[in-house]
Design goal:
Distance between the termini: 34 Å
Structural class: mainly beta
Strand content: 35-45%
Oligomer: single chain
Number of helices: 3
Strand order of the largest sheet: 9-12-6-13-5-4-10-11
Largest sheet: 8 strands, mixed
Mean pLDDT: 79
Number of strands: 19
Low-confidence stretches: 5-14
Length: 206
């Protein structure tokens, strides 16, 4: 059974790929769970100030976003400014995230048009980093588990890297021995993307 488990706690991130066929991990302290359908986005219900939406889980996005029609980032002399919305209560599948006091509010309707799936928002690493994020493609499931859970998944740990935004990456060695960091992004289904400059440099080294 192949799976990934991310521990977004205290800036220490571990990945546990399983070593062969194992039983489905059933930890204590499950805060939320979702079904993974094909290579589509992973959705969880999010309740904001009493209203419930369907948000995509995206380990490649640092800020949680709610789709707000007509709201767009603004270009200023100091750079791009993202409009935000204050939050009184924020729950993921009934689990309260008390540390979330503000979320980004921009128009995501273009993503809904591209994917053909309604998208109310995106759960970013500002939420996920407080949980153990367990992804099991074989069981087609995603779990958000309490960071205090003492349950340990099977498999051997691989230490991942995390930047200041909390986005996880794994170092991979290519055919020529060169090592590159690849972001683990659940918002990109079924593909691997390499930076153009690195791609051209690697092609020249063959």
């Amino acid at each position: 059974m192949r799976f990934l488990m991310f521990v977004f706690v205290c800036e220490c991130i571990l990945c546990h790929p399983s070593a062969g066929k194992t039983d489905e991990w059933r930890p204590t302290g499950i805060a939320a769970h979702a079904k993974i359908v094909g290579t589509g986005s992973i959705r969880l219900p999010v309740t904001i100030d009493g209203k419930t939406y369907k948000f995509a889980v995206d380990t490649g996005t640092c800020d949680t976003i709610i789709s707000t029609r007509g709201w767009v980032p603004k270009n200023t002399d100091d750079g791009i400014v993202l409009p935000t919305r204050p939050v009184v209560s924020f729950l993921v599948q009934g689990t309260r995230c008390e540390w979330i006091k503000e979320i980004v509010a921009i128009d995501l309707s273009h993503l809904s048009s591209e994917t053909g799936e309604p998208l109310d928002g995106i759960i970013g690493t500002d939420v996920l980093r407080r949980f153990i994020v367990h992804i099991d493609p074989d069981a087609e499931s995603l779990l958000l588990v309490s960071a205090q859970s003492e349950s340990k998944p099977p498999g051997d740990p691989i230490r991942l890297k995390v930047d200041d935004t909390g986005i996880p990456a794994v170092e991979m060695m290519l055919h020529n021995g060169q090592r590159l960091d690849f972001v683990i992004d659940t918002g990109l289904g079924g593909c691997v993307i390499v930076d153009r400059d690195k791609q051209e440099r690697l092609a020249g080294e063959r």
